[in-house]
User: Fold this.
Amino acid sequence: MIIELILFIIGLALLVKGSDYFVKSAASIAKNLGVSGFIIGLTVVAIGTSIPELASAIFASIKQESGIIIGNVVGSNIANVGLIIGITATLYIIKGKKNMIKKDGLIMLIVVGLFLLAALNQNISRIEAGLLLVIYLLYLLFTFQTRVKLKGKFHLRAFINYILKFQYLQIIKNGFRKKKNQKKIIRKLLIKDSIILIISGFFIVLGAKYLVTEAIFFANFFNIPQTLIAISIMSIGTTLPELSVSLTAAKKGFGNIALGNILGSIIANIGLIIGISGLIHPLSLIKESVYYAIPFMIFMSLLLVIFIKTEWKLTKIEGLILLALYFLFIISLFFFTII
Assistant:
């Protein structure tokens, strides 16, 4: 029992720390190969804080453990709002931007709504997972593509027009730029970063393996659903990168970055993680996830948008409310055996 707990903690530590080094080295390699900052932001940085959830979800999907995937995604999204934004807003005032809510906030609500619709029959098919993944990729392109002008527009309408007018095809023209005369320096940097990338990638795989395996062990040992382990303990651990980014950004006065990180992570957790893992193998859900956990996730997401729109900032009181709701949710899982 103690050994299994140690392995669980080691797996979590390897996953989180390995993800950190993986993102840094991947971004460095891309930059030195001449990939534009645009593409780096679109790929490496954009999904960086979701790598722990993604790695564990892929491993769980291969083992056909849907409860781990759904629990981790839903739990991470609830933790993103209740725990991370709650803690950050309690310590620092987080200022939001109207543009952010009109685009990221509304798209977030649409994505979580689509997730619930897909889950109502307690199964997410490959087609539904693929649709979520496509929506996420289009959202990334829409967010980073420089030619999209958003000033003075209702951003959700702009996003829809972006899709219907095939503006995302312009990305092909702007992806790469040439580099000159830095071959020796770049070669040394590439060797160093490649070694770090390989080692950190190995740690991510190893960490995900131990994390998922031990989560399944504890679920079976205590005779409780895997979803409960994933939605509580696993989700807290895999959201540590978001917590670090949010606290650092808010401390330096960049509350909009902290907020954008969370909104983006929620969208990524559903679009990217559910999308990829559902394509590997269709996902099945238990009734309590569909009728309690996912609706609570939507409620927390909606509450976050409402709080921001009130004064375009999050106050300490609102942070404490989000924290209290999160802990009430966790308590309800354990003491009332809802999941």
